[in-house]
Inverse folding.
């Protein structure tokens, strides 16, 4: 169930030492969605933090053949901190402050920095959920949270990913559940020579959901095409202060040239705006 980016170099499997990081809470409404989908498991979805990386690596190595160096995860976490998330099992609270969070899934995502088509869009580098926590809707929750952040933060119009042609389970997830479409087949995409499906999903439905949420909260400030409204498009009320006075009543300003320099004797001049003196 793994999209793959050809950028990083594969890494060998190795022992990962646990690192603890305090959990970052997500909005309550989203947390309720997770809990309702898995009533027997208390789950939390939080942004990927550098301290989560060893546990994300463990999840990746356990489930997927494409593995990455820690610095590649860190690259995502620091460059696009809004886009990558982890799923944490809260059913067994830590017994001490030294207990690490139980990370059971993650999505690693980024924005394409130089899109060939010139359209801002995101890319899913990797998605994985531990076998013990599958069929709980976690993969979809992780993906939707990342897609929403792509739209809200970077104005992404669509999202892409790659998946092995032999990975039927992942293909069903992306096509049937997440509504991705196969765009093309990339020959010998993976290091072992296997082909990959290049898949794509339009994010128009995310734009619609974000707009509906903003309208419900009374904070919508986007144009119909999804772009942010410019300052001049917003009604800021009647002008006040000097801007609210007639031209005759505005204080006039004059531009004076004054010498500057260490000895105040250099020939360089700068412009300095000074208010006109009141007439005596």
């Amino acid at each position: 169930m793994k999209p793959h980016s050809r950028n990083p170099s594969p890494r060998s499997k190795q022992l990962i030492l646990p690192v603890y990081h305090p959990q970052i809470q997500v909005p309550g409404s989203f947390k309720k969605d997770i809990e309702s989908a898995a009533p027997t498991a208390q789950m939390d979805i939080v942004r990927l933090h550098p301290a989560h990386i060893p546990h994300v690596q463990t999840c990746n190595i356990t489930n997927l053949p494409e593995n990455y160096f820690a610095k590649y995860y860190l690259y995502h976490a620091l460059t696009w901190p809004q886009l990558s998330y982890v799923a944490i099992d809260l059913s067994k609270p830590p017994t001490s402050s030294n207990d690490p969070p139980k990370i059971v899934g993650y999505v690693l995502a980024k924005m394409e920095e130089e899109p060939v088509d010139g359209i801002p869009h995101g890319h899913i580098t990797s998605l994985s959920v531990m076998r013990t926590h599958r069929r709980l809707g976690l993969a979809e929750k992780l993906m939707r949270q990342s897609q929403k952040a792509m739209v809200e933060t970077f104005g992404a119009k669509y999202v892409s990913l790659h998946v092995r042609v032999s990975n039927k389970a992942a293909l069903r997830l992306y096509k049937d559940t997440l509504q991705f479409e196969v765009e093309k087949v990339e020959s010998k995409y993976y290091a072992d020579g296997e082909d990959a499906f290049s898949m794509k999903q339009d994010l128009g439905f995310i734009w619609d959901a974000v707009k509906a949420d903003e309208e419900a909260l009374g904070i919508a400030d986007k144009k119909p095409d999804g772009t942010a409204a410019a300052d001049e498009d917003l009604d800021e009320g009647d002008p006040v202060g000097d801007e609210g006075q007639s031209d005759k009543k505005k204080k006039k300003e004059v531009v004076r040239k004054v010498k500057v320099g260490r000895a105040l004797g250099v020939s360089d001049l700068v412009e300095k705006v000074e208010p006109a003196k009141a007439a005596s």
